[in-house]
UniProtKB/TrEMBL annotation:
<keyword id="KW-0963">Cytoplasm</keyword>
<dbReference type="GO" id="GO:0006417">
    <property type="term" value="P:regulation of translation"/>
</dbReference>
<dbReference type="InterPro" id="IPR023200">
    <property type="entry name" value="RMF_sf"/>
</dbReference>
<keyword id="KW-0810">Translation regulation</keyword>
<protein>
    <recommendedName>
        <fullName>Ribosome modulation factor</fullName>
    </recommendedName>
</protein>
<dbReference type="InterPro" id="IPR007040">
    <property type="entry name" value="Ribosome_modulation_factor"/>
</dbReference>
<dbReference type="Pfam" id="PF04957">
    <property type="entry name" value="RMF"/>
</dbReference>
Length: 69
């Protein structure tokens, strides 16, 4: 793997591991009913991974609420 070019934006400084971590954090946030605007990542790629996780977790959260009602 080549080292990231220092002239690229923050979006180039991510790995599969960091994407997975962002997704998992977003999933847990959605699963626990936290608002999506609390997304913590400035880098667009990681933010997208977090939001994808949040979407999936929030869908589970809503399904659980419907079953509990």
């Amino acid at each position: 793997m080549t080292p990231p070019d220092e002239h690229h934006s923050e979006d180039s400084h991510w790995s599969l591991e960091s994407l997975n971590k962002a997704y998992q954090q977003g999933y847990m946030a959605g699963l626990t009913g936290q608002p999506q605007h609390q997304q913590p990542y400035p880098a667009e790629v990681l933010a997208a991974a977090w939001e994808a996780g949040w979407d999936d977790g929030n869908e589970q959260f809503k399904q659980h609420q419907r079953r509990s009602a």
